[in-house]
Amino acid sequence: MTTTTARLTASFDDAPLTLVRRRWPLGLALLLLVAFVALPLLGDDYWLNAILIPFLVLSLAGLGLNLLTGYTGQTSVGAAGFMAVGAFATYGLLLRVPGIPLPLALVGGGLIAAFLGMLFGIPSARIKGFYLMVTTLAAQFFIEWVFAKFPWFYNYASSGTISAPRLELFGYSLASPVGRYLLTLSCVVLLTWVAVNLVRSQTGRNWMAIRDMDTAAAVIGIPVDRYKRLAFAVSSFYLGIAGALWAFAYLGTASAGSFDINRSFQILFIIIIGGMGSIAGNFVGAAFISLMPIFLNHAGQWLFGGNVDAGQLQNLQKILFGTLIIVFLIKEPEGLVRLVGNLRDRLRTWPLRF
Amino acid sequence: MSTLLEVRNISLSFKGVKAISDLSFAVRRGEICALIGPNGAGKSSLLNILNGVYRADAGELVFDAERLHRPHPLTAARLGIGRTFQNNALFKNMSVLDNLLTGLSRFQRSFFIEQALGLPRARREARVFAERAEQVLEFLELQPWRDVAVGSLAYGLQKRVELGRALIAQPTLLLLDEPMAGMNAEEKQEMSRFIADINRDLGATVILIEHDIKVVMDLCAHVVVLDYGRKVGDGTPAEVQANPDVIAAYLGTVHG
Amino acid sequence: MNFFLETLIGGLLAGTMYSLVAIGFVLIYKASGVFNFAQGAMLLFSALTFVSLHEQGVPFALALLLTLLVMIIGALLIERLVLRPLVNRSQITLFMATLGLSFIIEGLAQGLMGAQVRALDLGIEDIPLFVGEVMISQFDLIAAAVAAVLVALLALLFNRTRIGIALRAVADDTRAALSIGINLNRIWQIVWAVAGMVGLVAGLLWGARQGVQFSLSLVVLKALPVLIIGGFTSIGGAIVGGLIVGAAENLAEAYIGPLIGGGITPWFAYFLALVFLYIRPAGLFGDRAIERV
């Protein structure tokens, strides 16, 4: 016992800097290879434009909201507001700062969104739960109003919309579907890596501690208010970049209405269905949300031979989503990602079990 | 031995009901001090004042020869006041290891951006933290549950994890609120051993609330008795046991 | 001065509508701790059901009765299929479940009864009324009177009947209420049914004012600031909160709006609620929870 405790009192600074060789898991390497090489070669424009790009952007937005809601426990229904900030800020930077490279404009847009997110996160020091939702609703509606009301933000366009002035990197145009796909994919991969780092770090643990019990978090020395604001800022940074990509890589042309409250709910559903407090869950949830309508559409065509009313399909979709949300909350609160995990475990032990 | 903590004329009331009135006592550096008294005597409230969860209506605290102005849980933690709670306040969805690691927050030096990008300083810090957490796991014999979510652990084990989370922060003063509540004799003995080791080997001063008089007598050199928010006894276990006021306070109340 | 008075009174009367929506929330929140996001969808559903029946030639009173029946069946189903399996789960989980519920109800409402705007004529003529030189909307006045009657009925229900007493017992201390043999599931069914009825009245009044359409379900978002200001647990608070939000919104739009570009009603109420939150975190009439460690 004495030897253990003697080591316990050891100072913090005398640990040697050892190099750890990290091995890349084969599965991840394969996945990246497919995403970066195979899909652009094989995928047609429809797949890239209508499925892969929105899937990736929604995953990124889910990731942003999950950091705030799933990891830090601060429920937000204003995600789309911060996406709008990112989109309009990136647009403004590209338009008004001559020669600014695209990555810098994206990061700038993200940072502006982060700053606004932090501002709207200030009340989280005093307000919790449903009460905090009011703050996020205020953010959502206020931001929407600002971008619809003041023409400066959309450069006095008569349509009230913004479209990307130029999508290029080092002289290469990214305007083609493949270009926009690769741009989106790069952002998503980079930011996912950062998010994984974050949630495994002391910062991530502090966030989760605040989520699980914020009084106890303060007692053990976590500056709760500061970490909540940080979560708002980081989350909004992600949402901001997702917003810019949504506007320019996916939609092409966007307005304040592209980021209304329904978009916020959509992002919230991604993390509920995918899995709160899970990185992979965002991808699963986003895949589900973006593929479900397409699947339903095809199923409808196939069943009723082409004469399905689009409105009815949308209503059916709503009912299905609502039901799924409730079923997930009841049966699998950890979301689809947990189901996928269970399935994988079962497959792994499959030969042994039977 | 010098005085580590001095409580001077502390009073606290909730909505006009006095929880603690005009309470004073001192805790010497390196001792294990027990707070005893019937339920509702104000013991937990006192701990909450000591680490800034509640603010006292009157009186002052002197810790490590400095007066505490406007105590706050955060400043208390930074001064090295560790704490466990009566009804475990753990982070239920996190693993045992992660719970312990959160206790190291006050030593965190790397910025979040360094952690986000996996820069060398953050990685080195993470490694040092992980090593310390492993040491605490070993010390408290918690390795078998290292990666288990705390919420699914048995109550006694949760108490041990909570002790570990406070301990890993190298507290100068450790406040333990009924660390042995709901435990059987064997578990109590084990916990007593941990507390004694922490006190002896880490030099942490301990204030603990405990109902089991036998445990108190074995473990503590100093006992403070509260009743209805007032101090009715203060001294060595033997002195306190002989004190007629203490006996009066305990008459008619049932404690295990 | 007349303009000010008109704006104020118009706002107050519009505020009674907010109050009606908020009351439905408070009922459910008090009895089950659920923040029912589906209240707006229930509003839409009830108004649509009524209009559809009425259009089919069902007489007014019968249509009202049938709609009521539908709302009660709905409440029973919700309790059985959604609330009971989620008992003892966190408030946020329950809230999200009602979010899903609102999707189902909206999808059903529009799927079954169409998405186009429907006119709803309650037979109330909207002739402006002049008190001195101040113009008041007669429709709003009648709506406010209906709201007042409804609140009085609810007060009777809570204070004079066995159900009401059981309800208050549950709201006060759920565990104690259970231990003396109150059937919690039954209470929840009743509360959701009553909230459905309040939703029906609110849906009809709102619907008559602006047409029965999807945007009715968005009224739910306006109820949130009303609840923040009035407190989640007080019917009186919901009424006062609604009046404050209605009046403040109208005044702000009239006096502050022109200075910053107008159209500020979508967000003004939330900022007002935030200001209130900073001053009184539990609302004007809510119970302040003491956090225990």
TrEMBL record, chain A:
Lipid bilayer topology: Multi-pass membrane protein
Molecular function terms, GO-annotated: branched-chain amino acid transmembrane transporter activity
Membrane-spanning parts: 24-42, 48-68, 75-94, 100-122, 129-148, 178-199, 230-253, 265-289
Keyword flag Transferase: no
Subcellular location: Cell inner membrane
Entry's Gene Ontology cellular component terms: plasma membrane
Keywords, in A-Z order: Cell membrane, Membrane, Transmembrane, Transmembrane helix
Keyword hit for Transmembrane: yes
Chief location of this protein within or outside the cell: membrane
PANTHER family named among the record's database cross-references: ABC TRANSPORTER PERMEASE PROTEIN (PTHR30482:SF5), HIGH-AFFINITY BRANCHED-CHAIN AMINO ACID TRANSPORT SYSTEM PERMEASE (PTHR30482)
Protein's name in the database: Branched-chain amino acid ABC transporter permease
Species the sequence originates in: Pseudomonas laurentiana
Origin organism lineage: Bacteria, Pseudomonadati, Pseudomonadota, Gammaproteobacteria, Pseudomonadales
Automatic annotation (TrEMBL), chain B:
Cellular component terms (Gene Ontology): plasma membrane
Stored PANTHER family: ABC TRANSPORTER ATP-BINDING PROTEIN, CONSERVED COMPONENT OF ABC TRANSPORTER FOR NATURAL AMINO ACIDS-RELATED
Keywords: ATP-binding, Nucleotide-binding, Transport
Residues making up the signal peptide according to the UniProt record: none
Gene3D superfamilies in alphabetical order: P-loop containing nucleotide triphosphate hydrolases (3.40.50.300)
InterPro entries assigned to the protein according to its UniProt record, in alphabetical order: AAA+_ATPase (IPR003593), ABC_AA/LPS_Transport (IPR051120), ABC_transporter-like_ATP-bd (IPR003439), BCA_ABC_TP_C (IPR032823), P-loop_NTPase (IPR027417)
One Gene Ontology MF term: ATP hydrolysis activity
Pfam families on file: ABC_tran, BCA_ABC_TP_C
ABC transporter domain span: 5-253
Highest taxon above the source species: Bacteria
Name of this protein: ABC transporter ATP-binding protein
This protein's record includes keyword Transmembrane helix: no
From TrEMBL, chain C:
Subcellular compartments: Cell inner membrane
Pfam families: BPD_transp_2
Keyword Transmembrane listed: yes
InterPro entries: ABC_transp_permease (IPR001851), BCAA_transport_permease (IPR052157)
PANTHER family listed in its UniProt record: ABC TRANSPORTER PERMEASE PROTEIN (PTHR11795:SF451), BRANCHED-CHAIN AMINO ACID TRANSPORT SYSTEM PERMEASE PROTEIN LIVH (PTHR11795)
Family of this protein: Belongs to the binding-protein-dependent transport system permease family. LivHM subfamily.
Entry protein name: Branched-chain amino acid ABC transporter permease
Organism the protein comes from: Pseudomonas laurentiana
